[in-house]
Design brief:
Blueprint (H helix, E strand, L loop, with lengths): L5 E5 L3 H13 L3 E5 L2 H10 L4 E5 L7 H11 L5 E6 L3 H9 L4 E5 L3 H31 L10 H13 L6 E4 L6 H10 L8 E5 L5 H9 L16 H4 L4 E5 L6 H13 L1 E3 L6 E3 L3 E6 L3 H6 L5 H7 L2 E4 L10 H12 L7 E2 L1 H9 L5 H15 L4 E2 L6 H13 L10 H15 L4 H7 L4 H10 L4
Parallel strand pairs: 1-2, 1-3, 3-4, 4-5, 6-11, 6-12, 7-8, 8-11, 13-14
Antiparallel strand pairs: 9-10
């Protein structure tokens, strides 16, 4: 059962005050009553109230003056005005000044109870919204990024320095490295934290819809446009727009994004007037945009506009010191509260020797699976996917016979790539999966070694 709401009732009419106080107490409220505005404010200073009901016309301090002082102390406090039939205009003016509602004399108790319940419900929702926003803000600050390796500390330090500014940021890195988490950290550590954070996966939206999704459209702009619609840029007004997989956008849309950044406005599809905006843009990609610029697949001017600051999220294989921390974090996340689940040494050894082509996202999935399928309170290598064991055995077997005169690591890598491509008949996607790396990484290394 929830806490009973505390109400402050202010009315100079003794008879009405007593009847109203009794009615509210009967309904389950805790009521403190005052015969004047001065007395009511004195009570308010001594104890907290969830809502205030005050008459407008009183000798001495009026209800309007009471309203002003209450809202100065607590702008979100629900204040309901009591007014006579002939002074409704005053009640309307009080609502303009911040009162939530009014009732007219003579009022029945059901009318007052409904008005009060509605006001308290709004108050509860506002408090819950504030709590949730604070919770989200805490969740997505930089300390939510698990890891203590040197590389991840460097990225977080640079992100912390750029967060207070409005500079555009380009976050690079392989899929699953936590690029969106870093972008959220920048947003919630900035002056825009109270504004919206709007993520858009540019690669996941169908090509025929992406322009409308980004910039909005007006009614009748195309078949199916039955009403005006705000785009993601408009929805992010006052906050941050996160454009994930920006490298997958068509060239013509890249030009429109560049214009939106330069003009700080957008044109809705089919619209005739610009919509002014105040939006910070953070973009992310797992592609080599500099190479795409050279090959004509990405606009050079947009690249330089986006890359005022570049943050690179390192792949998990380059921050192996963080694997035990991340594994324990995900294990606590997916295990029932109060349970004491641990990782056995053999399981931890497999986790740290695996290459993690899917990065942190793949590790999270593995730990969720292990927490579901575990045979006891200790997760062993048996509880982990077979591919982790296969990888460890295969990697060890390749390097069993090391030549006495040494070898070239680059030649070894080149040879492995050639053999993987031969094994899969030149299919780059399957070869990349076989080597436990992403396709863009494979292409980059093929270019590095001059492989066609």
């Amino acid at each position: 059962m929830g806490k009973k709401p505390h109400l402050l009732l202010i009315d100079d009419d003794q008879s009405l005050r007593r009847v109203t106080e009794y009615s509210l107490a009967e309904k389950g409220y805790i009521v403190r009553a005052a015969a004047s505005g001065e007395e009511g404010l004195a009570l308010y200073e001594k104890e907290p109230f969830d809502a205030v009901i005050t008459d407008i016309t009183m000798p001495g301090m009026s209800g309007m003056e009471v309203l002003k002082k209450l809202l100065q102390a607590d702008p979100g406090l629900p204040v309901i005005m009591i007014t006579a039939y002939g002074t409704i205009e005053s009640a309307v003016e009080a609502m303009k000044q911040g009162a939530v509602d009014y009732v007219t004399k003579p009022f029945n108790r059901d009318e007052l109870h409904i008005t009060l319940d509605r006001a308290l419900k709004v108050r509860r929702l506002e408090k819950e919204n504030v709590r949730l926003r604070a919770e989200v803000s805490d969740r997505y600050r930089f300390d939510a990024i698990v890891g203590g390796s040197e590389k991840i500390r460097e990225v977080i330090a640079l992100a912390g320095r750029v967060a207070p500014s409005d500079a555009t940021v380009l976050v690079t890195g392989e899929s699953g490295t936590g690029k969106e988490l870093l972008a959220r950290g920048i947003h919630y550590s900035s002056s825009r934290a109270e504004g919206p954070f709007v993520p858009v996966n540019c690669a996941a939206i169908p090509e025929n819809l992406i322009e409308s999704e980004l910039f909005g459209h007006v009614k009748g702009a195309f078949t199916g446009a039955v009403r005006d619609k705000e785009g993601k840029f408009e929805l992010a007004d006052g906050g941050t727009l996160f454009l994930d997989e920006i490298g997958d956008l068509r060239i013509d849309l890249q030009a429109k994004i560049l214009r939106a950044l330069q003009e700080r406005s957008v044109d809705r599809v089919g619209g005739v007037k610009q919509v002014d905006l105040d939006v910070r843009v953070i973009a992310a990609t797992n592609r080599d945009l500099e190479r795409d610029v050279r090959e004509g697949n990405f606009r050079e001017d947009l690249y330089y506009r986006l890359s005022v600051v570049i943050l690179n999220m390192p792949p998990l294989r380059e921050r192996k010191d963080d694997i035990p921390l991340l594994a324990e974090y995900f294990l606590r996340k997916f295990s029932p509260k109060g349970s004491d689940v641990r990782l056995a040494p053999d399981a931890l050894a497999l986790l740290t020797t695996y290459g993690w082509p899917g990065n942190v996202r793949e590790l999270e999935n593995v730990m969720e699976r292990a927490s579901i399928l575990k045979r006891g309170d200790t997760i062993t290598s048996v509880d982990l996917p077979e591919k982790l064991s296969r990888r460890a055995t295969g990697a060890a077997g390749i390097l069993l016979n090391l030549p006495d005169d040494g070898l070239s690591l680059e030649e070894l890598e080149k040879d492995l790539i050639i053999k993987a491509l031969d094994k899969h008949k030149g299919n780059q996607t399957r070869a990349a999966e076989y080597l436990r790396i992403t396709r863009p990484t494979l292409i980059y290394r093929m270019e590095k070694f001059g492989l066609k």
